[in-house]
Amino acid sequence: MKIKLTALFLLFTMLSATCKKEKHDKETLPAATQIGKDIFGCLIDGKVFVPRKSGVSDFLILNANYDYLNGGYYFSLIAPRSKDGVRSALYLKVNDLVLKEGQAYKLTSTDLPKSANGVFVITTSDFLEKKYQTSSSLGGEMLITKFEKHIVSGTFWFDAVSEDGSKIEVREGRFDISL
Most buried of the four, 11, 65, 90, 156, by CB within 10 Å? Predict the structure, then answer.
């Protein structure tokens, strides 16, 4: 009887661990915060995009800089992801503009001076790359919700187009990073 109960207990434990793992693997957008928590997430065509390194579910990799160069301020945020043999990255950039808390920046073309822009790049396992960029004719905005010393937080959304004319929609974007 003890063997049957022990076996039943072990089976139940393994099944509940499997159920918990399935729930954990489902990606969701992180909550919007403003404390330098190093979070990033958005929806790309309705699907959750959270930067991760392949095979490591809890390792978030972000690269953010806010620098003074050649007489102007430049902000860049890169959120890379590797999943199922596909590499992708979302870029937000502000060129030659001072970041201000409460300020909204229109996301336009990547080659305009004193501008902000968004780019999404996807590279397949065959090394085929497709780049989607914001433009002056498409909508997009990045709002800085907190900016102090070493913390930048904000929200963003944009539409972007590739060279072949295909479009993506980036929605419900949020970031909270320490510089």
Answer: 90
Under DSSP, the state recorded for 34 is -
Calpha distance 139→158 (Å, rounded): 6
Residues 106-125: pLDDT tens digits? 999 877 889 999 999 999 88
CA dist 124 and 80 (Å) reads 14
> How many of the other CB atoms lie within 10 Å of CB of 5?
9
Q: CA torsion sign, 42 to 129 to 91 to 51? A: positive
Burial profile 40-62: b = 16 or more Cβ within 10 angstroms, e = fewer: bbbebeeeebbbbeeeeeeebbb
Residue range 128-161, pLDDT digits in tens? 899 999 999 998 999 999 999 899 999 999 999 9
